[in-house]
Write a structure and sequence with these properties.
53% of the residues lie in helices and 7% in strands. The protein is of the alpha+beta class. A 4-stranded mixed β-sheet has the order 2-1-3-4, covered by helices on one side. Helix 4 (89-117) runs antiparallel to helix 6 (137-158) and helix 6 crosses helix 8.
């Protein structure tokens, strides 16, 4: 298998955590994609993923799988023993519910703020934004507010349970880890009084899959 990504970036981090949890690093060849140079917006990459986002998983038969949730589902179920996406119908439903919330309320909102209300990854990528991106700064700022509200939501959630979707680590936790990295890059701090979220962060950062990602 091959994974096209950029180490140190939020969404690639999510999939690398999955690889660590499933002990699959030895089965993957990583191919670096130069995001600041807009390599992911060029025809060769768009053939693999028309949406122009990383990561992308390439299977041995040539199939390309994009989107972190889809990649996670594939990797987690390869051995028939899912750890991160749920086993029972109830567990699957809860994990996917929280995965969606982690994306919509945190990592996606932070991304929209980062790309439209800040300099983002630089001038090479500006021409790939919406033509009216300069007028979308207020829109980006609105998503910063959404992300800040999302941080509060997950702090309250973690006051009641040890992990994002319940009693054990799941792909939703990996998504929130990626979101917090993105928040750091975007200059959105986690308030110090969000103790549950910060305690969770410190604890999950001790997992080998996270530390090595």
């Amino acid at each position: 298998m091959k994974i096209y990504d950029t180490p140190g970036f939020p969404n690639p981090l999510r999939v690398r955590i999955v690889l660590g949890e499933k002990n699959l690093y030895s089965q993957v060849e990583f191919i670096n994609v130069d995001l600041p140079a807009a390599e992911h917006k060029q025809p060769a990459f768009l053939t693999m993923n028309p949406l122009g986002t990383v990561p992308v998983l390439e299977l041995e038969d040539g199939t390309w799988i994009a989107e972190c949730t889809a990649i996670t589902e594939y990797l987690d179920n390869l051995d028939g023993r899912p750890l991160l996406t749920g086993v029972s119908p109830r567990e699957k439903a809860l994990i996917h519910m929280m995965q969606k919330r982690a994306e919509s309320e945190l990592i996606d909102a932070i991304g929209l703020y980062f790309h439209y209300a800040t300099a983002g990854l630089g001038p090479e990528l500006q021409r790939y934004k919406y033509p009216e991106w300069q007028e979308r700064k207020q829109w980006g700022e609105m998503h910063r507010l959404k992300a800040e509200k999302g941080l509060g939501y997950f702090n309250q959630l973690l006051e009641k349970q040890p992990y994002i979707a319940g009693d054990r680590f799941s792909m939703a936790d990996a998504t929130v880890i990626g979101a917090l990295l993105f928040a750091f890059y975007a200059g959105i701090p986690v308030p110090q009084h969000y103790r549950a979220l910060l305690t969770w962060k410190a604890r999950v950062y001790e997992r080998p899959s996270v530390a090595n990602a």
